Amino acid sequence: MTIFSTGDGNPPLSPDEQADLIPNLATREELNEFERANILVAYDWALSPRNFRRQDPLTEPYLRGLHRRMFDQTWKWAGLYRTTEKNIGIPHLQIRESLGALLGDARYWLEHQTFSADEIAVRFHHRLVSIHPFANGNGRHARLMADVLARRQDRPVFTWGRADIGSQGDLRRRYVEALQAADKNDIEPLLAFARS
């Protein structure tokens, strides 16, 4: 398997996006491991007591900054919105406007307690995944954003099936099916999956 194989369920990267890989890696497994280490550093930063309450996660700079922290050792385009079309997500020219609407909606949901704490975080996750603002790492980024929103509401972080959703298999299939149900306005499977 090559490092940039497209059979993993993720949108393919353009040649320019692939050329922006920072480390010299040979396999997909090496890339996954390298990204995982980068993400753990960002996870600790996002949920650390020192940073947690000082940051407003419902701002565009935070959203981009978190993606940058998650992938800055891996991709030169970490934290930058994609400039190419993907097989999922909205047209790239609509990203900024759609993110602005999502951030405003989430603020409203929080201020008016429109949904339960978990549902606010999971709905935010779903909408962020559907926008797909970055060339790669959107699901992982959206899950960490949901964890941050859950913690901001004094809820524990989500378990997301207690395994690596990125790898193929039953867990990823269940996650994608839950996202597809949310696409049809049925958020319950995604809520259940997030706490499974």
Mean pLDDT: 93
Task: Look up the CATH topology.
Answer: Fic-like fold
Q: What series of H and E elements makes up the topology?
A: HHHHHHHHH
| Low confidence ranges | none
Number of helices: 9
Helix content: 55-70%
Rounded to the nearest angstrom, the radius of gyration is 16 Å
CATH class assignment: Mainly Alpha
**Would you identify the CATH architecture?**
Orthogonal Bundle
Number of separate domains: 1
Notes on the structure:
The chain has 196 residues and is mainly alpha-helical. The chain has a single domain, classed as Fido-like domain (Fic-like fold, Orthogonal Bundle). The protein is 56% helix and 0% strand. Helix 5 packs antiparallel against helix 6, helix 6 runs antiparallel to helix 7 and helix 8 runs antiparallel to helix 9. The longest helix has 20 residues. The model has no long low-confidence stretch (mean pLDDT 93).
Short description:
The chain has helices at residues 15-19, 28-47, 49-52, 60-71, 95-112, 117-131, 138-152, 170-183, 188-194. It has 196 residues and is mostly helical.
Key structural traits:
about 0% strand, about 55% helix, about 200 residues, mainly alpha, Fic-like fold
Task: Compile the SSE list and pairings.
Blueprint: H1 15-19, H2 28-47, H3 49-52, H4 60-71, H5 95-112, H6 117-131, H7 138-152, H8 170-183, H9 188-194
Helix pairs in contact: 2-4, 5-6, 6-7, 8-9
